[in-house]
Amino acid sequence: MIAGLDHLLESTGQPGLAELRRALADLLGGADAAGRLIEHVPLKAANGRVHRVLFEQNGCLRSWIAKRLEPGNARRNELVARRWLPAVGLADHGPGFVAAAGAFDGRSVWHVYEDFGDGALETRKTDEERVKLAVELIASVHTRFARHPLLGQCREHGGDLGSRYYQANLNDARYSLEAVRPPKIPLSPEQTALRDRLLAWVHRQLDEYASRAAVFEECAGPETLLHGDLWTTNIFVIQTPQGQKARLIDWDHTAVGPVSYDLSMFLLRFEPRERPRILDYYREAVAESGWRLPSAKNLNVLLGSAECARTLNYLVWPTIALVQDRAEWAVGLLEQVDQWIEAMRPVLPETEEPKIESAVAA
C-alpha cells in the first residue's frame, strides 16, 4: 500500500484524480507495493494543473510531474513523445512521457512525466554550454522534420504557425476591434484611445502584409515541426551518465511552420546583445544539414512577423470577451497588449549580419 496516495491532490478539486492515482500506483508497483507519498508541489501558475509528486519507496525517492490536459492537447503531447520525436531519432530528448490517465468524464487527461528537476535554462545567468546544447536540439528538431512525411499528421493535430497563421490573426484582430464601438460597447475616453491605438497598429500590419508575405515566400524556408512555445522554462539541460543532455518539454503548442516562429520566441527570451551569438549557434548547427539563413534584414522581418502574429492572437481573445460578454477584465489585457506593442523592437540588432547568408534551404 502506498500511504497517502488515496488523498493525493484531493484539496485541489481537480477532475480525474482517481485515474491519476491508479496510474501512479501502477508505476510504483501495483496494489501490493509499499511506500508513502511525501509531498506534492504545484508548479507554475497553471490553475493547479501541474504538480511534482514525490514518493518514498524502499528507502529511495521517486518523483514525477503530473499534468492535466484537455484531450486534444493530451493526444498531441503523446504523439510528440511516442511517435514524432522517435521517428527522427530524438525520443530521448523529449518530455519524458511515462503514463496517461483519462478522466472518467472524458473531459481531461492526466499525463505523468519524468521529473527533470531544476534544470530549466536561465536567461539572467547564461551558461553558454547549456544554451548551445539547447540550440543544437532545437536545430535538430527543425532539420530532421523539414519536409518530413509525418508533417501532415503534425499539422492535423497541431495546426499551422506560418504565414497563414499571421494572416488569420491579422484579420481576426481587425474584425474584433472594429466591433468595439459605442453605443454597442460603452467606452471611456481612455478606453476609446486605447482601442484606436490598437486598431491603428493592426491597420499598419495590414499595410505591411504584402511585403511581409513576399519575404515569407522567398526566405522562410521549408516547413518543419515547431515546438511552438520555446520559453526557456520549457527547455531543460540535465546531467546524465553520458553527460549533459537537452530536453524539450510542454509541447502544448506544437505545430507546423517555418523555423523563424520558434527562433523568434526563443531569442526574445534573451537580452538583445546576446541574441546574435545565440543565433550563430543555430547557424552552425543547421549548416551541418546544408541549411543557410537569410540576411539579417529578411530574418528580422520573419522573426518580427512571428512576434506580431502572437501579439495579434493575444489581442483577439480579450476583445471577443469585451464584445460578447462585456468582460471588465478584458480592458486590462488590452492595455497589456498595448504596452507590448509600444515596447516592440527588432529581434536582432539592425547592424547584425549573418556569417552565412542566403535563404534557408534543406
Describe this structure in words.
With 362 residues, the chain is of the alpha+beta class. It has helices at 17-27, 71-87, 128-145, 151-158, 163-178, 189-219, 259-267, 275-287, 296-325, 329-343; strands at residues 2-3, 35-42, 50-57, 60-69, 97-102, 109-114, 224-226, 235-240, 243-248, 255-257. The chain folds into two domains: 2-114, Phosphorylase Kinase, domain 1; 128-343, Aminoglycoside 3'-phosphotransferase, Chain: A, domain 2. The strands form three sheets. Strands 1-2-3-4-6-5 form a six-stranded mixed sheet. It has a two-stranded antiparallel ribbon with strand order 7-10. Strand 2 and strand 3 form a beta hairpin. Helix 3 (128-145) packs across helix 8 (275-287), helix 6 (189-219) runs antiparallel to helix 9 and helix 7 (259-267) crosses helix 9 (296-325). The N and C termini lie far apart (55 Å).
| Envelope shape | globular
- β-sheet strand percentage: 15-25%
Q: How would you name the CATH homologous superfamily of the largest domain?
A: Aminoglycoside phosphotransferase (APH), C-terminal lobe
Termini separation? 55 Å
State the name of the first-level CATH class of the largest domain.
Answer: Alpha Beta
The biggest sheet, with number of strands, parallel, antiparallel or mixed sense and barrel status, is:
6 strands, mixed
Q: How many domains comprise the coordinates?
A: 2
How many helical stretches? 10
At CATH level 3, the topology of the largest domain is: Aminoglycoside 3'-phosphotransferase, Chain: A, domain 2
Q: Uncertain regions: pLDDT < 50 for 5+ in a row?
A: 352-359
Task: Give the overall average pLDDT.
Answer: 92
Number of strands: 10
In N-to-C order, the SSE pattern is EHEEEHEEHHHHEEEEHHHH
- Radius of gyration based on Cα positions: 22 Å
CATH architecture of the largest domain: Alpha-Beta Complex
Structural class: alpha+beta
* Helix coverage percent: 40-55%
Strand order of the largest sheet: 1-2-3-4-6-5
